[in-house]
Amino acid sequence: NDSENLNETLEEFFGKSNTDPDEFANIEEKNTDSAEVQTTCDICEDTRFCICEEQYEWLQSLLQFLNSGTYLPGFRKLYDVSYTFLTSLFYEYGEEEDLVRYLSVARESAKKANMTWALARLCFLLGRLCTRKHKFSQARVYFEEAMGVLNGDFSDIFLFTAIHMNLNAIYLKQKSKEKSFQMMDKSSSLILGLQNYISNTDMEPVVLKYALKKAILSQDQKCERNACLLLAKTFTSLRRYDEALPYIERLQVLQNTTASSDCSPSRYYFQLADMYSHKCLPHLTLSCVKVASKTSCSMMDSLRRVDFIIKNASKLCGMKRPGNKTFPTQIAYHLKCALSSAVTKQEQELCTFISLGIAELCAAHRLYKEARSYIMKAVHSNIKRQYMVDIWVWLAWLYMLDGHSNEALDILNFMVSFSDCTQHQMGIIHNLIAIALQRRGMIKNAANHYCKALQISKDADNFQNQAVVLANLGTLCLHLKARIVAECFLVKSVSIYSSIPLVNNRADFIHVLLVLGYHYIVGDQKETGRLYYEWALLVAIEAKNLQGQLHAVQLLCQFYSAFMVNEAQCIIYNEYQLSLARKMADKVLEGQVIETISKLYLSLGTER
Q1: Which of 93, 388, 429, 538 could form a disulfide with 51 if both were Cys (CB 3.0 to 4.6 A apart)?
Q2: Dihedral of alpha carbons 194, 196, 200, 202, sign
Q3: pTM here?
């Protein structure tokens, strides 16, 4: 029995909620011993050198640091393309020329002390600083000296590659074709042979394109794949996405033809989807997402597909979903895939919010039973207490929307006695209890709860809730045919709504305006009623609420066809309704409106 299960769940929840809050504390013990341990790599990465005229102690420590015969993680900032070493390795120097002077002193000291590796790295740094100032001839001298010092020693392959690439870049910039051509094969081999290659010059695309051309001619797919991968990485890091795109496309083609068990055949589809999305190509984006969904089944991949669909589905209709808060239905499948693929503890915690997302999607399409089932999944998970009240209130509202007022009242009556409810939440709960009681015909009790909700909202200075409760009281009075009292409540509600800043799609405000407009029209105040209809339409346009605009314009069409007959005005509003139907991609409505417009033109004797 659904009602019995609901009561059991409620009792279980409130039983837990009344226990000691300390039981819900999530205490994580940290291993302090591991925090005390520092590896040599960490020390190297944090190394910095103070350079100033008064202190020369830095010189010996710098030479010792740079004289390592092998690669250390701290050297990465020396070799990368962004000149990180200017700020991360040296500090307290004035101009860049001061740093050049100090490094020149260090270079001479390294020569005298016969410190080969320190000398090579200092020559490399001086060469890079000269390149930065466009002093290419001087930079070339330093790089060639560094090459001569190393004498083909590959102990630090990253240094050797960086010197070789920067020297080749100088030859290319100076248009020294002969020397550049002599180095090109070795440069391309060095780049392709390193798994964790450190980008260190802006001329790398030239070398990589040469390597790619050579790989294609020799039909070496492995080299071709590596060259495409590095070209894609290089152009992406430079934010030249249009140039990166063809190489990623080629990578995916190669991946499809040579897919192995250790690599997913769809590994590059997400990158392609991201680039197509930036280029506003929604069909290609969603196609990549669809292909990726056939092989990739992790939770994070499913959520990435959801993100791509949300960003691109609306573009297929040629619009940006103005004011439409409903997510595209295509995401439901991928959210369910994410639920079923949760493995880690963090992913299990995320499942709660995914369940709520699916519930919201179902509710938007009036699948209230399915929405409730996903909310119950969220309730049974380890969700934080601060979210529980809102979730239970939402569940009660879904029961009411589905015509189950008794179950809604069971939940709401439990919530009234719950100590963790805020004033804002308590006002909403009393308002919902009143709605449920009103639906069951218990008018007096409903009015009492409306009054309680109104008083709580006033005490909390919650104008939004006040406006909602006043509108509901007005609707209750209309049901009782107390039209004058109903008008007072509705006008007061409209007054409060109109003073609230635009924070959402204003659906409640639009509804109240339309109810009040209809009240005036049937009460022989047609002009006043029309003004409220038009006001509702303007509010919906301002809030970019398509559904609100449609409802208001339909009532205006009805007004000019039934209450104050005016074919010209009717045509104007029907034309606007037609544009809304096209924006909402509602073909049935579009056909009906076109037929209506045709009849109106025929009645005016203007055939076209």
Answers
A1: 93
A2: positive
A3: 0.67
